[in-house]
Design brief:
Metallo-B-lactamas; Oxidized Rhodanese, domain 1; alpha/beta; about 450 residues; Metallo-beta-lactamase, Chain A; 15 helices; six-stranded mixed β-sheet; about 30% helix
Length: about 450
Amino acid sequence: MIFTQYYLDCLSHASYLVGDERSGKAVVVDPRRDVTEYLDDAAERGLTIEGVINTHFHADFLAGHLELAARTGSWIGYGQRAEGVEYPIRRLTEGERISLGDVTLEIIETPGHTPESVSILVYEHADDDVAYGVLTGDALFIGDVGRPDLLASLGYTSAELAGMLYDSVQHKLMGLHDDVRVFPAHGAGSACGKNLSTERSSTIGMQRLTNYACAPMTEEEFVAIVTEGQPSTPGYFSYDAVLNRKDRGLLDLSDRLRSLTAAELIARRDGGAVVVDGRDPQEFATAHVRGSLNVPADGRFAELSGMVVRPDAEIVVVAPEGREEEMITRLGRIGFDNVTGYLADAEAGFLEVPEEIVPASRVTVSQLRESLDEQRPPVVIDVRNSSEREGGFIEGSMHLPLAELPSRLDEVPVATPLVVYCAGGLRSSVAASVLRKAGHEDVSDIIGGYGAWERALTPA
């Protein structure tokens, strides 16, 4: 058996290549859109990719099933409850076995995160009593289970889906042998759950012992515990959940890798394009194009972009040196295909349009403390998730999670100084740029975020 996990840190996303070395047959599970790595690995190992399985309609990224099918002729598989699909699919049913040779896959229907969700048992040998592992998609994570409240599941309530998830996790998955390895579709940082581990695999036995949602409990207890405290949903999730059902265009960077002059970038901005600046927050604060959004490439770039940019918006990119293709690819992974060009050399480009270049304010913790004692103190805004805020916050601060900020801008006081903070100073730069673009003139973010605030309170 050939079994390979591919992990994208920026989306906390895991995909898998499973093949039989003797027969040369393989499938890919939950692929991303840039599929060259799967194809290269398959070719190197003498494998032919015959099928692509999505464990469910993903909401946090645009899957690469159409890209792989176009390159390989492979079939595309979903659980039998999959609805509204615009391209041909193979409907996978409970107990169905897919032979790759001696290596065999078996389908388990595990609804709950979404109605059509499936998990896939992987047997190294067709007659093995215990499976090598189970690909659980977003049904079971390491340390958590998939949230049942996403808009991907239109027509169902979170309570209904949580009830389905109870049966999937507590009965079907926990009914497997303790030695079966667990390989989920996501890890820590994903908004598809609230308590995901940094570990990328585990076993059923370990999850039985350590995963809060796998402990014996009633259905009512399970529903209550898995629906409580979920992070805010990024705005692009519903867009991707729908787009994954559509016969949409394939990933093609050739028309997006277009170098722009600074004047051309300004013209596109003036025509309605969103300028996404992927540089470090401090570089952005030193100088940036007026009205641009700072979404640092050294971070969860795609997810954060999807929180603050509309999926249908035209995008132009200001890239750190040599990283324009990377940024445009990462936007493509969430289905943001409306990139019309990039400015690669920001420093040189800014010199061409000095009247359009502005700085951004960042403050230290000590500067914030001083300003809070002034006659006209700033309004402080916390853009962290609710679970982070439970661990402490700056007294008197408003709570507007970054994923909710674009839809709640009318709650932000006008004509008053604003200071934004997150955990470490990256998301706050994103949020501050959103507020400036929305017309707030006096906006700063805290260097070092809440971590710096806590350290300042700790006696030496």
